[in-house]
Amino acid sequence: MKKIANKKKKIILSASDSFSKTVNSTDLKKKIAQKGFLQISCRNFSRPFPFDLQNVFGVVVSKIKFGEREMTFFPNLKVVSPFGVGVDHIDLFAAKKRGVVVTNSGGASARAVAEHAIAHMLGLARRISEFDQRAKGGVWDWVFGMNLFPNLKTIARHGIGYDKVDTEAARVRGIVLTRTPKIANAAVADLAIAMIQMLTRNVLLCHLDLVERWTWDRRIGRTFSEITVGFVGLGGMGREIAKRLRVLGVKHLVGWNRSDRPEVQEARTLYDIERSTFFDYVALESDVVVVGLEFNPNTKGKVDRRFLLAMKQGSFFVNIGRGETVDEEALIEFLEDGRIAGAALDVYAKEPSPTRDENFGKLVALAKQGRVILTPHYASYTEGTVREEIEMVTHNLLGVLSGNLEGVEIVT
Predict the structure, then answer these.
(1) Does 130 map to a domain?
(2) Disulfide engineering: 177 pairs with which of 68, 154, 310, 411, CB 3.0-4.6 Å?
(3) Which of 377, 389, 395, 409 is labelled catalytic?
(4) Does 351 participate in catalysis according to the annotation?
(5) Domain extent for 317
(6) Phi/psi zone of residue 166: left (φ > 0), alpha (ψ -120 to 50 degrees), beta?
(7) For residue 78, what is the domain's CATH number?
């Protein structure tokens, strides 16, 4: 190992990264040199050393054990200084026997430690960690947001759903909640059409056959004119999908919606959608089931085990609404046993980070088999849609704050 030059220099040996970085980034290095010492960094006390051990007069240690064995390396050692307050990693008895002085930095870090302790106390008292996780999960409720901002006037949702907002708390506090409906419908419908076609034509399976199994397997699929598509939810997204499917020549459309409001009636007439008053009829009749439900107490788990069990053998399942509206465990079970031939999911029961969820792990395994298509709740993410939604969010915010509510989509 190459020896360090200037052997006559008295050495201060630093086994503390923090000390070394501080010295090298400040004028302390110059001050040490002016006193006739050379500061050298050393991560541990393993031999061989790239310098003359007799020239080491001082050692700075952090958490590394520094006992009698280490002291014997340096015959002229005069002082050991821990970087910090604690000296429990230094053999004080051995140091005293050898006449080595042990110092510490006393209260030098007291202010920083105190500030750190206060940060912890405030963090615990204000539940910062909890709220951070809730915010990352998209949760905005009275505990989190509304109490933190006493002058809050409006909450503007970017998108259609508002299930992450405590609407009752907002109403009680007089906070106006807005959203951006309709804008995303076309983008979501386009993705749903792509998903339906990929499933019914076995695109993912054929892709895996070629690129992973190197097999030339022309799997039989079905054209739009050969399938019945059923809708669970005929909101704006469902109606847009139905419009596209009718143009593409789908044989039969059937749909269930909680209410038969005028726009739903109009769509049923325009696109010749058979109305299903019996919820499970959609499952019994359809080759492809498309779920486009918003999430609320009435829709939680609406697509349950019984509905999924009623689906045709070898049918397909698409969800571009909300993951919590579907019994995810039952869906996985029927995908694994082949009752449901395939699924395309843009939403999940646990979002936005489902990667550690057991159910999501099972879905990933199915996806690797070519049975399931998974996308990260991005159906509305197109350049034009995002731009329009941002413009509408801005319009909603300014409209509420200025009192001009024309064109503002108010939820509560």
Answers:
(1) no
(2) 411
(3) 377
(4) yes
(5) 185-374
(6) beta
(7) 3.40.50.720
